Amino acid sequence: MSDPEFLEGAPVALGGPRGLEVTRTLPSKHRRMVGAWCFLDAYGPHRLAGSPGMRVGPHPHIGLQTVSWLVAGEILHRDSLGHRQEIRPGQLNLMTAGRGISHSEETPARHGDVLQGVQLWVALPEADRAVPPAFAHHADLPVLTDGGLTATVLMGELAGAASPARCHTPLLGAEVTLAAGCRATLPLRPDFEYAALVVDGAAAVADVPVKPGPLLYLGEGRAELRLEAGPDTRLMLLGGAPFTERIVMWWNFVGRDHEEIVAARQGWENRAAGGPFGTVRGYDGPDIPAPPMPITRLVARGRTR
């Protein structure tokens, strides 16, 4: 069992220089993945008075699943399959890009005063990364309670509670809330690697003090996880079997080599002529253009740097 390590986040403007600011902890400088989780943005709480909130225009994805989870507020999802779905706290939006999809995300016209949540990506394994695109909304997820602990299982299984969301690799994603002063222990799988992100409050996670901001990487080999809250606390627990495939992750694409990324970018830039990404209808703004390709070739890399 390895010692826990902090993965510090970087500020990013979502959707462009004037976009909503998020903190990105995956991929990090030293670690790209936790299980198949390859991307993690946390945002808020943002006060929306006088602000448009989230405005992320249509953009493409391949080779991954997007996992949208809210703590406060509302987001309206539209995609090229024709889905239009609002998501609220306690609900899961799961989009499987597979061989290609595009979508937009925005704060709806009628909304609350605060927006807070996380956006995650799951890399699809070789056997499934070209599946047909799909979208699912799960409003009813399993919830575990134990004294002052409540755990909602977004993806995978925890302590016998299994999410209905479809996973393509052994995986866990859960939101855990702890009442002030709560002490609890969660069972873990020793063959998984895990990480925890405190969203609100402060807690000792595996005896390590954690506050909102960095992602605490817990490694493999743990059969249980000790948690102790200071104030009321909310955290995200991520885990999964170590993802052994090497991937290329560039912009909104997860592929396996440089040529695949080039082809995906061209498909998005030439979408007027057709292609795998389709059209998002109903968003009242421009599509997001692909950035220029880097001057050097993209190289597939493993889960650590």
TrEMBL record:
Binds 1 Fe cation per subunit. SUPFAM superfamilies: RmlC-like cupins. It comes from the Bacteria. Pfam families: Pirin, Pirin_C. Belongs to the pirin family. This is Pirin. Keywords: Iron, Metal-binding. Gene3D superfamilies: Jelly Rolls (2.60.120.10). InterPro entries: Pirin (IPR012093), Pirin_C_dom (IPR008778), Pirin_N_dom (IPR003829), RmlC-like_jellyroll (IPR014710), RmlC_Cupin_sf (IPR011051). Residues 21-122 form the Pirin N-terminal domain. Residues 174-271 form the Pirin C-terminal domain. Fe cation binds at H59, H61, H103, E105. It comes from Actinoplanes nipponensis.
